[in-house]
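Narrative progress, year one. The postdoctoral researcher (J.K.) led the effort to move from monomer predictions toward full complexes, under supervision of the PI. The following entry was the first complex the group processed end to end, covering 1344 residues in total.
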Amino acid sequence: MTLNIGVIGTGAIGRDHIRRLSFALSGARVVAVNDINAEQARDVVTQLGIEAEVYASGQELIEAGNVQAVLVTSWGPSHEAFVLAAIAAGKPVFCEKPLAVTAEGCRRIVDAEIAAGRRLVQVGFMRPFDQGYRALKTVIDSGEIGAPLMLHCAHRNPHVSEAYGTGMAITDTLIHELDVLRWLIDDDYVSAQVVFPRATRHTHAQLRDPQIVLLETAKGVRIDVEVFVNCKYGYDIQCEVVGEEGIARLPEPSSVQLRSAARLSTGILMDWKDRFIDAYDVELQAFIKGVTDGQLTGPSAWNGYAAAVAGDACNLAQVSGRIEPIELPSRPAFYN
Amino acid sequence: MTLNIGVIGTGAIGRDHIRRLSFALSGARVVAVNDINAEQARDVVTQLGIEAEVYASGQELIEAGNVQAVLVTSWGPSHEAFVLAAIAAGKPVFCEKPLAVTAEGCRRIVDAEIAAGRRLVQVGFMRPFDQGYRALKTVIDSGEIGAPLMLHCAHRNPHVSEAYGTGMAITDTLIHELDVLRWLIDDDYVSAQVVFPRATRHTHAQLRDPQIVLLETAKGVRIDVEVFVNCKYGYDIQCEVVGEEGIARLPEPSSVQLRSAARLSTGILMDWKDRFIDAYDVELQAFIKGVTDGQLTGPSAWNGYAAAVAGDACNLAQVSGRIEPIELPSRPAFYN
Amino acid sequence: MTLNIGVIGTGAIGRDHIRRLSFALSGARVVAVNDINAEQARDVVTQLGIEAEVYASGQELIEAGNVQAVLVTSWGPSHEAFVLAAIAAGKPVFCEKPLAVTAEGCRRIVDAEIAAGRRLVQVGFMRPFDQGYRALKTVIDSGEIGAPLMLHCAHRNPHVSEAYGTGMAITDTLIHELDVLRWLIDDDYVSAQVVFPRATRHTHAQLRDPQIVLLETAKGVRIDVEVFVNCKYGYDIQCEVVGEEGIARLPEPSSVQLRSAARLSTGILMDWKDRFIDAYDVELQAFIKGVTDGQLTGPSAWNGYAAAVAGDACNLAQVSGRIEPIELPSRPAFYN
Amino acid sequence: MTLNIGVIGTGAIGRDHIRRLSFALSGARVVAVNDINAEQARDVVTQLGIEAEVYASGQELIEAGNVQAVLVTSWGPSHEAFVLAAIAAGKPVFCEKPLAVTAEGCRRIVDAEIAAGRRLVQVGFMRPFDQGYRALKTVIDSGEIGAPLMLHCAHRNPHVSEAYGTGMAITDTLIHELDVLRWLIDDDYVSAQVVFPRATRHTHAQLRDPQIVLLETAKGVRIDVEVFVNCKYGYDIQCEVVGEEGIARLPEPSSVQLRSAARLSTGILMDWKDRFIDAYDVELQAFIKGVTDGQLTGPSAWNGYAAAVAGDACNLAQVSGRIEPIELPSRPAFYN
């Protein structure tokens, strides 16, 4: 049995997901595509050599009889409407982050999904599907390091463009930690503080870089995340969990060890696209399996909402310089 | 387009490949199975919930009209006949190691394939598909460490059963190095020597363990491989390439780093099945793609033959205590 | 030429310094000792087999004609008076931390030394003499990682006694970071904040453990130091300096790498006394050389004062929960 | 009590030892020096500012009334005569390697020392005093990795001069492993084989580089040592001991870890003088203590002889291409 998928948005990531579904994963095929740029959509179909119909609008694609599930990889501000439409059509939908550009938008999706009576939404947070994070969670859940007390994290990029402003350090970058850390330690945030170290000379006028975000959770865990997006040396994701009995650290990506030129070294990736490349396969395969089995298990609309609420507080803390509360309503039973 | 595959042999590895083809990889389905134990074959079909016909013999499966390609995962001594039959039927065949239990048997397959006029055989050596070995080869081929001069390798198992004798250290264990090292440094072996260190107290009467195999290549590279199959502590594969400008080392498998109980540590795998688990997916996906594209690129029958010739010399050197020549005929142009 | 040294305080650390001066270092001998427990002082002389006179009081020892330099390793609250007496006597003095139990006491020593017109005091902060910290400073000073922007540090002990209260996390533990980090990045602190994560179940009623101390420097560098003194797994000192071009990390202590029992591991020390054991030799040898050359170069009274001022602010921040200013007067030219 | 030492040979290493004895170690002073170049000897005394008499000959220095112990750091071929003279004078002598330039010469020293009735000779093999090797030996002796079965070693130099020929790979380089490995696993060699890999393009006409030396011990342990003296990338000493229960590896020298320019790296030393720099201090301090205590414990004349016998066999094996026996007489009870 093969799942028929429609893809809205055929930019870089959409195209890559279409390739995945068509040539790398099991159990699905892309039968419909749409893009605001119709010619680009047609080109993707031609270049990849797949048999998919090009739809004039996302709405039509969602309603198409042979489309059983939807992927939303269009421009961020369009996500909410497409996801709501898919829910209205009763079709499972995988939506790239952000689920919506505001916490309120995410909340509307949560409410719609609850009203629909079954889980239909998976958000494209890929880190919970990464082998390294999963191994780290396995260690934590085993009790081997005891109860987590502190997390020391870093999210570093070699550089960003002039279009990337101070607030995007939260909405584009930290958002991944905001999702994956909740999942990792099974906890919720209660406050956020942001401090700004001396700025690197490699940043630009619109961006205070680096930043350190300090989070507190309901269980009292303290999290610090260094966000440093012009760090020059690599795309580097660090996560260290300090527990009562010991410390566990996210594995470094596998790399050939070199002895050369007076250094013993391994490589650090420079491109974020390579860091979680396997996780994209795993998250989409999980979506296919979830739809086929009738039970989605990946990041839910609630997770998208929770990350958005925390992100709003972080953005506020950037401006206020104060410790800002993070007030997430209690989780609906629907999401347990 | 989906490739229809028939699988001969539904033991542990056969069953695992069927699962892979059905639920993890793209572009193929299992339509036929056979096992010397017909009931087991039926059980596998039922348990995995696939739609595949159970054939009374491997030969019938090979000849079945809807079978487009064959997987041979049966008992080793039966491989040669099934592979020859597939070649005779003009059908691509993926054969688990050994390609044949003698070098002569491998040679017959090579001759048959050449006579058939196109590559039809892929041997189930998975290490060239392993991300770590591929990264190592990329470094070597880049010239970064200069011309390879020496390789220091180890192949260690925590323990083996009483059925594993001294000769199997070559045919079951070293055989993987014999294949992958030729590929890694693009070279051929010219001699082999085996030395026996003091035996571990954890071995048994029929097995001299550990052993060190010393190989020399046509280009003068010296290779030492420690084969130690009752090493207790883990399944551990090491490969260090010493070049004129530096040294490159096979990556350790990714693992969470722990600080606990006065140790800073990462895990070592205990089960060989976990070590190259991703490579099995990649090698089979490559076979599917190779068949579909009309051009197999994985380990060829010639590679199977070359490994067998080297293995024979190593087995002889175990007994003689001398440096034994490895005489591989020159590679037929067919395999360039 | 051999320097004659008098040692006040023959407890564990005093005794160890006497052994060092007598049998491990070059250029000095212990000619006088004193302890509030005279019998213990006599025992140390006898047991180590040295020729040293036992004095009835520290003051007499300081004034003794053949004593050319003084080591103060007595009870903390007695340090200030002995150091001031040594300055008054015009004799160089090495004083174990704390220089004085209050910042005001340290300031009195600073003033006395300035009035004396030459450097006479070295404080027993040993980390600037540690090979690892020195290597780290060399990297920073080389400009290889660019200007420091953030420091991520940890000071972890396996456990502490019931006598160790929340405030001692600053005065006994963090005090080493407060000294060494100023030296490492050549900067001064301007504010401190303390946050308290969920407490470990291994702490006791009088101790909030762990703590995270957040420091800001005059140049805008942000420092976080995790102080965790019941961490169970080891005595572990971490220091990572994030610069504009890259990151440098304090070396782990050297340790045999083991492959055993499914783990690849190195050891972590359990006893703080082993961590900087070589640095004690180096700091005392530097004191001997400094006295002999007429120019002390190790941690000065000003450094002791600066650490005490910062420590007071941290202690205040523990209680207030606020960001507290650290107001260090400008450095007297005398200490440049 | 201060030991009066006379030093024969004031070249680079002699001068460095004089500095050590005078300014870094405890319990000794240099009272006499001699060099074949008298002016150089005088310069060293002047430059270091020590009070030592310059003797016209090594023999006179040895016989001088105030010289209690002798250091021989002169040209290799002169060692034997000076050591024999020191034994004849009943004075303890520390001799840099080689103890003598032939095994027979070493044997004459052994015989003379036995005839003298007490240990008077310490050979300047410093590796047994290296912290890393000592930690490795502690692990082995603890039984943690079980009985040693194999050792995989490497001795690599960035480059050597044109004066360094194939045989010197044994007598100048491997000689350190020949000494330290016997000590490390408490065993004796019984055979040696040398194989020559493809030569590096960075070697010169008189030197086959690299070489691999294969040793077998009395207990059946197999040792391989890669000797590669134009390896370009660093001075790198590796030693891995494979035991019945696990594997222990010599620590890498401590180094700052860097994240920069897409690499995670630590430094590798380039200069051999830095690799065991601390061990020189420790070996000489042990000599001083041994003489003072009346019991030398460092590498004995027997160790020097055993290394020389093994070295001769390795040199023979370089030429013969065969497995050569190493026939060491049984150890005199005197050396137990």
